[in-house]
Amino acid sequence: MEVYLSYLFLSSIFLLVGLYCSFLFQQRKLPPGSRGLPILGNLLQIGPNPHQSLARLAKKYGPLMTIYQGSVTTIVASSAAMAQLILQKHDADTSGRIIPDAITTLDHPSYSMAWLHAGEEWRLIRRILATFLTNSHKLDSLCELRHGSETSTNTTEWAMTELILHPDKMMRLRNEIAESVSQKGRIEESELLRMPFLQAVVKETMRLHLAVPFLLPHKTETNVSLKGYEIPKNTQVLVNAWAIARDSDSWENPTTFMPERFLDSEVDFRGQHFSYLPFGSGRRMCPGMPLAHRVVSLMIASLVYHFEWKLPHDMNPKEHDMTERFGLTLARAVPLVAVPITLI
Predict the structure, then answer these.
(1) Secondary-structure class of domain 31-342 per CATH
(2) What is the pLDDT of residues 206-252, one digit of tens each?
(3) List of E strands, 98-245
(4) What tens digit of pLDDT does each residue of 300-341 get?
(5) Phi, psi (5° rounding) for residue 226?
(6) Is the N or C terminus of the chain more exposed, i.e. has fewer CB atoms within 10 Å?
(7) 191-210 burial, b for 16+ CB within 10 Å, e for fewer?
């Protein structure tokens, strides 16, 4: 009996040592990062605003790092170069989805293209959307029908906030819209897409206040080699598009609202400029981009052209709360309250 117990004890020791050595070996192959606490991992470091805390951690551990959300190992890309490596070079290898429990509870993965496996059914749905809803000709013919979404609403709210805080830019935009209206007699959606300053405002809002700061979580479909690191199959991969859009290596005065930066610039949101990814890139790029672009442009133009706006109670713009509330989308922590004054 004693021999048996000794054998069992030694076997357990060897097993634990083997598992620990295997763990250390895996860590050597993964990108650098903070080990965090047992069981919790880096959850306490991440906190309520992970887009901000992971941007700070990336400055210490580099643009490709490893974090631990409890028992979930996650690779985080925080630079344009790393985003391009994942979303372009290894697009197919990282096209899987980590589906949150809240989504599976609602049975969304069975019907939503955002969560479906990138297989035949997913490709069919994407083709149907492109053919019957999101191509430019179809959107022109359905101009009286527009679908709102939380991301479009949030983007419009952030845009109006910035314009109220920058009245010179509000006036410049209103004048641009008024010039078009004087020629056409009304705001026409097709003309909005050709207004350079309006489009610069839309792009700058999407850069500074990214609606989905991490895009949607990716998952490796196979073992992937990234910059000499070995990422196992089924590992979660996040692209911190919020951090990339505020990277001083890519943007001058990155935290300042400057729509002018997009005038005479080739940078757009179609997924080819990896310093600017409001809709993602590659095969998992948001298929609703054309519709969202039009809806946001139309809402901003309508609000700016028809109304003058001011903060209530003669509030000093410097006192205005710009705190963000993190979720699947990035909204204002305190909803915008503004007073409209009818112009037309």
Answers:
(1) mainly alpha
(2) 999 999 999 999 999 999 999 999 999 999 999 999 999 999 999 99
(3) 218-219, 224-226, 229-231, 236-239
(4) 999 999 999 999 988 888 888 999 999 878 999 999 999 999
(5) -125, 115
(6) N
(7) bbbebebbbbbbbbbbbbbb
For residues 252 and 208, the answer to whether their CB atoms sit within 8 Å is no
Round to whole Å and give the CA distance between 267 and 250.
Answer: 11
What is the token pair recorded at 310?
């001011």
- 213 within 8 A of 330, measured Cβ to Cβ: yes
Q: How far is CA 166 from the centre of its chain?
A: 25
pTM: 0.87
3-state secondary structure of 129: helix
Cβ(65)–Cβ(78) below 8 Å = yes
Per the structure block, which two tokens stand in for 338? 């503004």
How many angstroms separate the CA atoms of 303 and 344, rounded?
Answer: 11
Residue with tokens 């078009």: 180
Contact 195, 177 (CB under 8 A): yes
Domain ranges of the chain: 31-342
**Which is it for strands 229-231 and 224-226: parallel, antiparallel or unpaired?**
antiparallel
Strand partners, 337: none
Cα angle 88, 89, 91; round to 5: 60
Integer-rounded Cα Rg, in Å, for the chain is 24
Q: What angle do CA 199, 278, 281 make, to 5 degrees?
A: 115
The CA distance from 198 to 259, in Å, is 9
b or e along 23-50 (b: 16 or more beta carbons within 10 Å of the residue's beta carbon)? eeeeeeebbebeebeeeebbbebbeebb
- What is the SS3 assignment for 326? strand
- Do residues 312 and 338 lie in contact, with contact meaning Cβ atoms separated by under 8 Å? yes
Copy the structure tokens of residue 50.
Answer: 């992970």
CB 79 within 8 Å of CB 34? no
End-to-end CA distance of the chain: 94
Amino acid sitting at position 215: L
Distance separating alpha carbons of residues 84 and 31, to the nearest angstrom: 17
